[in-house]
Amino acid sequence: MDLSDIHHLLSERASAFLQRGTHDLFIDGQWSAAHSGQRLTTVNPASEAVIAQVANACPQDVDRAVRAAHRAFHEGPWGRMRPVDRERLMLRLADLIETHAQALAEVESLDNGKSAAIARAVDLNMAIDSLRYMAGWATKIDGLTREHNVPFAPDAQMFTYTRREPVGVVAAVVPWNFPLLMALWKIGPALAAGCTIVLKPAEQTPLTALMLAELVQEAGFPPGVVNVITGDGPGTGAPLVSHPLVNKVSFTGSTEVGKLIGHACMDNMTRVTLELGGKSPVIVLDDCDPATAAAGAANAIFFNHGQVCCAGSRLYVHKKMFDRVVADVADHAAKLTLGHGLDPGAQMGPLVSQEQMERVCGYIDIGRSQGAEVVTGGGRAGQRGYFVQPTVLTGVQPDHRVAREEIFGPVLVAMPYDDLDEVAARANDTPFGLGASIWSNNLSKVHRLIPKIQAGTVWVNCHSTLDPGMPFGGYKQSGFGRDLGRAALDSYLETKSVFIQL
Ligand code: ADP
Fold first, then answer.
1. 275: which strand partners?
2. CA–CA separation, 419 vs 395, rounded Å?
3. N or C, which terminus of the chain has less Cβ within 10 Å?
């Protein structure tokens, strides 16, 4: 499908946005081309057709955006605005996103490959709810007052209190799997705290961030409060995260890049939140209904084509029901309909890029070469678009690369186990610790297992469930800090202790 073939399928706003063809940077409330004049192309991964050209921001553009955010923080009306007015602006932005949710979902689908219907139901609803949730915090940021206990001035009269202050300029660097949603997970708490932001979407999926910038403008945020710069990792992301005027970096992406960013942040003592990779276990206990567990396990890995940091990519099933559950998961996989994200019948779209498709197929081949058996799937689907068959592997040993490394695609490794202690140890035998799910109705076993699992989230009889108020993040090499919830807000605030001797 070419772009001209699909305009009739799109809402007016999505069509008008795409018809523009080229898109600029949003800095200080204005649109401008990159200083270098360079552009990047973005393709529809279902058809491989170019859908837009975006500016490729160079270090001069990064500097301009950070300085705009710095000015907006220190000099503009934003810093003097009452929290209730910040909240109102955030709610207006959430309303605008809701009004244009269909258009945003369509553009997300074209840029990323995911189903537009799923993007509307999941990505957009979650983005809107998360922004509204964080808007509510703007008016609830409190310090505390306390009686002093200064040991060397016991008789002094002292007024001691703490203030929570916004950390300052935030650089938000986000990935391509949930482009708009990840942007709002960062923008929401940053705005609620009173920070200003430079957002860099992933080079594969820059478009909804640019649509969001238009809505930021429509909502009436002062210039420089939210800036959006497009570009790649080394040319745009790296100078952004190491800019000395950036006070906090909030990153979601691979563990490899997260480590680079963590190092860069240490040089300037920039605050940093890193939400990184995973190899999340799905643990099926022997009491549970095999059909329910299999449907849950299939959804845990195949949702968003496996391009989910907390995807349930390692399935551990009690040996007495291993064959039955694996057969059912494979059956679910084989029945998934692959197709273009705008096709309402498509349950799974293409992977985001050729590079990602090759990487995922490469892992399936590595699995085979180390002795894995392909129960279903096993490689690319079709010749056009970056489609990969939902794949289930068995015969995998704990030290095989497919059992240890994050594949970030629709590839599940299924392994049998014998007892609870063994499965807890195997679930934790990974450098990652983002999520885990347990499938069982045996409360006693479930509660014994939960404290043993080293992961930021444990789901029971569900997987990848998210709530704007529940913190999300990783143990171990899955990252530092949390998105969502009060915990996320706190990471955009400094605490200042004040002593006033009376
Ligand atoms: P993936 O491996 O899933 O493509 P990455 O971790 O490479 O994800 O990318 C996530 C985000 O990080 C993207 O916006 C990308 O441009 C950005 N990025 C990549 N490399 C760097 C870097 N060295 N410094 C800052 N940002 C980077």
1. 252, 479
2. 19
3. C
Q: Are strands 30-32 and 25-27 parallel, antiparallel or unpaired?
A: antiparallel
Its pTM surpasses 0.85: yes
**Paired residues of 436 in beta bridges:** 458
Domains of the chain in sequence order? 3-276+479-498 (3.40.605.10), 280-468 (3.40.309.10)
Alpha carbons 175 and 169: distance in angstroms, whole number: 20
Strands 391-394 and 493-501: unpaired
Integer Cα distance of 183 and 111 in angstroms? 15
Q: What confidence tens digit (pLDDT) does each residue in 322-337 have? A: 999 999 999 999 999 9
Spatial CB neighbours of 248, under 8 Å, sequence gap ≥ 6: 167, 168, 169, 170, 171, 190, 195, 270, 271, 272, 273, 491, 492
What is the rounded CA–CA span in Å between residue 117 and residue 396?
35
pLDDT, tens digit (0-9, with 9 covering 90-100), for 144-161: 999 999 999 889 999 999
* Span 461-502, pLDDT tens digits: 999 999 999 999 999 999 999 999 999 999 999 999 999 999
Helix (H), strand (E) counts: the chain: 18, 21
Task: State the Cα–Cα distance between residues 199 and 182, nearest whole angstrom.
Answer: 10
Provide the 3-class DSSP secondary structure of residue 58: coil
Under 8 Å between Cβ of 357 and 350: yes
Tokens of 147: 């009686």
Q: Residue for token digits 């009376």?
A: 502
Ligand 1 center to 173 CA (angstroms): 7
Rg of the chain in Å (alpha carbons): 24
Looking at 87, 106, 203, 275, which residue is catalytic? 275
Residue 40 Cβ < 6 Å to ligand 1: no
Contact 325, 392 (CB under 8 A): no
> Which atom of ligand 1 lies nearest, measured to the CA of 257?
6
Two structure tokens written together for 63 = 């500097």
Query: Using a 6 Å cutoff on CB, does residue 241 contact ligand 1?
Result: yes
What 3-state DSSP class applies to 268?
helix
At 2 the pLDDT is 56
The angle formed by the CA atoms of residues 44, 363 and 252, to the nearest 5 degrees, is: 60
Beta bridge partners of 53: 22, 41
Among all chains, which residue has been given the structure tokens 């004040």?
Answer: 498
